[in-house]
Amino acid sequence: MTLVAAVFGGSQGIGRAVASRFIRSGFSVAILSRNNSKREEAITELEKENAYSVGIKGSQCDVTDEKIVQESLKLVEETLGPLRVVVNCAGINLDRLLVQTVPEDINSIINVNLIGSIITSKIAARLMLKHKCGNIVNIGSIVGMKGNRGQAVYAASKAGLVGLTKSLAQEIGSRGVRVNLVVPGIIQTGMTENMDIEQVKNQVPLSRIGAPEDVAEGVFFLATSPFITGEVLIIDGGLHLNR
Ligand code: NDP
């Protein structure tokens, strides 16, 4: 039987690379995101890259809406089979000094990054508890561990994922479900396109910024390593050592 993975925020950037990594290892993959055309484009590209894969599906889903997340994962199970892996890559950043941050932006960041992960983890956990196995991987950020000027709310939303991951891991480990957190540094995606890459590279011991595939490798490792749960895996080329 083909194993099934669902990737929230799988239409681009890190999520798309995660979807590709699982497809290459023979998983059927569901890609869940808000923008339909962006997601369809990603699915077409993934199908071209993986000519022999038939198990790529997509559906519209906003991680901030519990009912929609529940319906989406139910649909994934009906069309592809029991969920083995759920990865939440959906995230936004609206960087600004805290004193200048408006309430709407605070709500959006916390809703998508923190509450979205709480919702997706909860719904995924319920389904996986029924199967008595499964893996949830959340995506944090190195700024959630170290903080960063101009990213106080984003950092707070990502720091919350450490507590979420470690608590849920303890709640459901004995029932065969593992929960882990990948913490990327600076990764080349739409989210970082306005950064001064040359300046950032100088702070990274490995002298480059990350590729989405670097993060996908860590996600795949955690999702398929049978005795790891509640773990926080930093994938940042050593950036945290210098900050
Ligand atoms: P991108 O902006 O490239 O992709 C974000 C993805 O999330 C898109 O697929 C987007 O699709 C989806 N998304 C956003 N909001 C929602 C929502 N409410 N519901 C469902 N899907 C949503 O970002 P990255 O790939 O760079 O980031 C992926 C994750 O990694 C994020 O959590 C980010 O915080 C984290 N991260 C990124 C780093 C980086 O340097 N790039 C560093 C550290 C962490 P759509 O808009 O269609 O919904």
Strand order of the largest sheet: 3-2-1-4-5-6-7
Low-confidence stretches are none
Q: Which outline best applies?
A: globular
Tell me the strand percentage band: 15-25%
Number of contiguous helices:
8
What is Rg? Answer: 17 Å
- SSE arrangement, N to C: EHEHEHEHEHHEHHE
Cofactors and ligands: NADPH dihydro-nicotinamide-adenine-dinucleotide phosphate
List how many beta strands DSSP finds. Answer: 7
Give me the CATH superfamily: NAD(P)-binding Rossmann-like Domain
**Highest-level CATH class:** Alpha Beta
Describe the structure.
This protein is of the alpha/beta class and 243 residues long. The chain is 47% helix and 16% strand. It is built from eight helices and seven strands, in the order βαβαβαβαβααβααβ. Strands 3-2-1-4-5-6-7 form a seven-stranded parallel beta sheet, sandwiched between helices. The termini are far apart. NADPH dihydro-nicotinamide-adenine-dinucleotide phosphate is lined by residues 8-9, 11-15, 33-35, 38, 61-64, 89-92, 112, 116, 139, 141, 184, 186-187, 189-192.
